Amino acid sequence: MTATSRTTGRHRAARRYRWVWPVAIALVVAVGTALLGAGGTYALWNGTASTAATTVRSATATVTVGSTTAMNTAVLGPGTSTTGTFTVRNTGSVPLSMRVTTTASKSSVAAATGELTLRLAMVSSTAKCVPGLTGTSARLATFDTGTGSFTLPAGVSGIACLEMALDADAPQTVAGATTDFTLTVTGTQVSA
Known about the structure:
The chain is mostly beta strands. The protein has helices at 20-37, 43-46, and strands at residues 63-65, 81-90, 96-107, 116-123, 136-139, 150-152, 157-166, 179-189. The chain has a domain at 63-68 and 77-170 and 182-189: Immunoglobulin-like (Sandwich), CATH 2.60.40. The radius of gyration is 43 Å and the shape is rod-shaped. The model has no long low-confidence stretch (mean pLDDT 84).
């Protein structure tokens, strides 16, 4: 048996995408022409610039505290007080928010610290440090002005007035007691 081949006529494929080649060629020509004509715009993508040299310096925050004037020249009786001063200076280069706290206190009679009230106020001179000033007031053992009690600008000194008062109803058991205390002065930088 011999097979006969079947012959069919050739037909042409449908031309659906005839427009693709002319559009692609036109697009390549247009982009090439645009790039050649705009040769100077490449700097926008590759541009650099420099700034002038700058120096950054850190500030200093330092405090010096002078000695407290003698507060032990007067003997306290119930309802009386004594005053003393100390100087605090901001020797740094930034303003400081100041805080004063009692960090240690001891008494020859334990109950005495519970009968003593410490008051702190800033004054313009030592002569202005007199009993009865308004300011931060608390029991000696727990005295704390809190953050921001006062602010010292850079290079400025301040005079702190301390008043120690014995309660008017202090019991006889605290008679003759001596009390020592230590104040800590802390400065925290504030924005200028």
